[in-house]
Sequence to fold (655 residues):
Amino acid sequence: MRKFPNTTIRQKLSATVMLTVVTALLIASLAFMTYETFTYRSIQRRELGVMADLVEANSAAALTFEDAAQAQAALKPLEGQGDVQSASLFNLEGAQLAGFRKHPGEFLIDAPRFLAQDRIWFAEGRLQMARAINFQGRKIGTLCLIADLGGLRQEFLWSGMTVLVISGLSYFMAYGVSLRLQRGLAGPLAQLASAARSVAKNHDYGIRVLSSGQGELGLLMDDFNGMLAQIHQRDRELKDHQDRLEDLVQTRTRQLEADMAERKTLEKQFLQVQRLESLGTLAGGVAHDLNNVLAPILLSIQYLQERVTDPRDQKVLAVIESSSLRGRDIVRQILGFARGIEGERAPVDLEGVLKELTSIIRQTFPKNITIRSGLSPKLDTVIGDATQIHQLLLNLCVNARDAMGKGGQLCLGVHNSDVTESQAKLRLGVQPGAYVVLSVADTGCGMGPQTLDRMFEPFFSTKETGKGTGLGLSTVHTIARSHGGFVRCSSEIGRGTTFQVFLPATGSAPKPVAGHGEARGNLAPARVQGSGELVLVVDDEAFIREMTRHTLEAFGFQAISACDGREAVALYAARPGEIALVLTDMMMPVMDGLKTIQALRKLDPAVKIIATSGFQGNDPPGAMDAGGADAFLAKPFSAEKLLRAIHQVLGQGRT
Fold:
């Protein structure tokens, strides 16, 4: 503990005491002089009032009869008053009847200016008064007086001398008191002041002042030392708490930054999901309309193939059919994105899928692309649709091939992985647990942040016009989501791209299904011929009605048509027992397909009905619901599929 040296502030203390005393004396002197002045003036006013009363009593008759001599006699007593310098009596018209001046140069009051009212005022260093003279309640004249203030000056002189004497005595007494205060208070107070300044400036709480005894100052200094000791202790504690608080703040700041990053990631994913859902809704409507456009084309192709014999025309029809089927596949991709993709769920042989895919791309991809594949041992089982998973991987490989125009390396892999709860929180709808990860990595051109944000949008493509539909990655995203998984992508421009598809693992399961689904093949058109059965075709699209009717008639059926459900019900009711089958669209104005089916069932519970719709996906709208149709055809359908469905529903067919 460091002791603070004993210093003095005698000069400051002495100056303070003397200044205080002088200030107090000046204030007291001013107050005394002011009081004397007001007192003297009050006395003067009272004396002038008494004199005015005396003159009023003595001058009433003189003013009434305008007797100047008697009026002068009424003013005679005022000449003996030492302070009165001049006096005048005026009648009601303002004419002076009497007056006097003790000194020749003394001025008189200009009476006409003051006849209207009584007043007393100070002017020209004198006290002046204008007073009305009344008799029996009636004004008869005016008295004007001027009094000297010489007595006041005399009072000021005596008061000043008194103040000087008292001030001198007070000064010497104050000087003595200040000397004593210097000896008793200056030293200890100097220590306290210096210590306080040092503490305030340097925050040095180790300073201590020397005690000056057992008196009040000694107790004050002891308390001051005790206060410094407590402050010193609390300062150390505060510093410790501050350090801990800074650590907590830094920890919390890092946590908040992580939370904010997580929240921004989730918001970004939520907005992306909303955008994809909106695009899906739009895509579903577009696909429905495209199916209605393709439906009469596919129906008319087989109709024309039966009648055209020229080989060149057959080639043209084959091109039209191929293009229509390709358009149908694109529409199915759109619908898969819009309404989700469902398929048969079974344990999938991922090793077999990967080997088959590797074999295909080795044969079809350019030779300047090196292909590598790897499988982790003891892969967990994935429940899903092998065909869709094959399509998912193929789409990713095709994208990787297109990104490596000058060659590169394509790596395929499958391994097990665990998604923790903290990782699952970073993605909407993802559950923690075991996953199997399908990875496709390339060394191509890579993607920037803006492309990564939009890569799953349908019809978004960075390829040249005509070289891509923009549906590949949106299909990948939809397939992964329909399997309960998600897609993670990392990419950098010029350094390649890596896609990881996480699919939920189920542990042990029955033997997986090898391959990627049922092989496709072109089946020969079934020669289903009708026997003149009457078919009612219901559709709001005129081209579809006409082509369906021509197709049915070409294969031995009779056909009538209706543009909506109301007309169809009316036709069926008008021809009871004649119509063998009703072919109705599900989406129509006035009365839709479901209500049409219900109305027809009420007319004839045994009626045969085939429902059609341009909507496809998980749940065809009302086609097979209670009170629904006997079969469902998804638009666009070929003549072969139409005839097969009719054959199945009617229970008769001829080849």
